[in-house]
Design a protein that fits this description.
353 residues; alpha+beta; Phosphorylase Kinase, domain 1; Aminoglycoside 3'-phosphotransferase, Chain: A, domain 2; 2 domains; five-stranded antiparallel beta sheet; three-stranded antiparallel beta sheet; 44% helix; 13% strand
Length: 353
């Protein structure tokens, strides 16, 4: 079995970074941004993240980027925030805060963060989507917001090679096999291997013909903030990818899908909202349930693999795994054609309760 997954852009999945203390974060804000702040920790899978409050009450966020992230990637992730803000100013994304020298991603000097890139942004208030009360109205607004972000990204063009190909890109699902092979429980390992066999045989050839562009690629319950039925924050472009547009929809759908006999009822609300901005083709819609399952397989494989290597962060990494196993098992009880037919019918019916 491989100790390192295949492909590029995986160093920050493998290497633990030295932790940054609250005092160190406050010193970084003072030294690089000229701000006197109180720092509070924010959860993160790879980077060190902090909520900051200035002495005059302003709220900001400081990201200390993982040291394994290459400079071109940091630049692209900084550029995308600026691009989306300029292309669709009404979108609720964090705005970049320049350092005292004008840099948008300065490198820390001295201390435990030495050499690591910094990114400061405005603070987006709201309740994480995973904690919000679900409703058809909110799901439609989520779909509209996702489509607007994708529309803004159509014209985004970072330098070639400036962003690695990520294992979270659903178009690369075949490369998850080495991780799947390390899952301890044989029946679960076989379940994922059987899905990847079908992915290679049936889904990947169809996916290759779908439209591509840059997308957010991680529209999940932690990266979206809401106030009532309004999206108040779209966070974390760290997993953005140039991939099939429908993959972006599938990732969002996975995180709002239900469980049990009709897991796609909530997804139809998201689709209706999305199509109020950008229409999806029938082929994309029919592929959507299969791509949702692909996202589930990716989440399970990568999360289980990482948890084994970073036991100190195991609870955070595996926070959604039990629910995802249940979702995947529920959906695999139906044929792909039946799921596609169901989604098209639900889309035409009207809002789910």
């Amino acid at each position: 079995m491989l100790d390192r997954p295949t492909g590029t852009g995986t160093a920050s999945l493998l290497e633990a970074a030295p932790p940054i203390s609250l005092a160190a974060a406050e010193d970084l804000a003072a030294h690089h941004y000229g701000l006197s702040v109180r720092a509070y920790p924010l959860a993160g899978e790879r980077d060190d993240n902090f909520a900051l409050t200035t002495i005059d009450g302003r709220r900001l966020v400081l990201k200390v980027v993982h040291p394994a992230e290459v400079a071109a990637v940091t630049t692209a992730q900084t550029e995308v925030l600026d691009h989306v803000a300029r292309t669709d100013p009404g979108l609720p994304i964090a705005r970049l805060v320049p350092a005292t020298d004008g840099a948008l991603a300065p490198r820390a000097t001295g201390g435990t963060a030495a050499g690591r890139a910094l990114r400061m942004t405005t603070f987006c208030a709201g309740t994480p989507l995973r904690e919000a009360t679900p409703s058809a109205a909110l799901r439609e607004v989520l779909g509209m917001t996702l489509a607007r972000v994708a529309r803004a990204l159509r014209s985004f063009g970072p330098a070639p090679g400036s962003h690695p190909r990520l294992l979270w890109d659903l178009a690369r699902a075949s490369e998850l096999r080495s991780m799947v092979g390390e899952i301890d429980r044989p029946e679960r390992r076989r379940q994922l291997e059987a899905f990847l066999d079908r992915y290679d045989r049936e889904l990947a050839p169809r996916l290759a013909h779908q439209r591509r562009q840059w997308v957010h690629n991680d529209f999940n319950g932690d990266n979206i903030l809401v106030e009532g039925t309004r999206v108040s924050g779209v966070l974390d472009f760290g997993d953005m990818a140039e991939t099939q547009l429908v993959n972006d929809v599938a990732i969002a759908a996975t995180h709002i899908a239900g469980t049990g006999a009709r897991p796609l009822a909530a997804v139809a609300d998201l689709v209706r909202g999305y199509e109020s901005v950008t229409a999806l083709t029938e082929e994309e819609l029919r592929m959507l349930p299969d791509l949702m399952m692909t996202r589930m397989v990716a989440r399970l494989a990568i999360s289980e693999w990482r948890a084994a290597r970073f036991p100190e962060n195991r609870d955070y990494i595996l926070r959604d795994v039990a629910r995802t196993w249940g979702q995947l098992t529920d959906m695999q009880e139906h044929s792909p054609d039946a799921l596609g037919d169901e989604l098209l019918a639900l889309r035409a019916e009207g809002a789910a309760p």
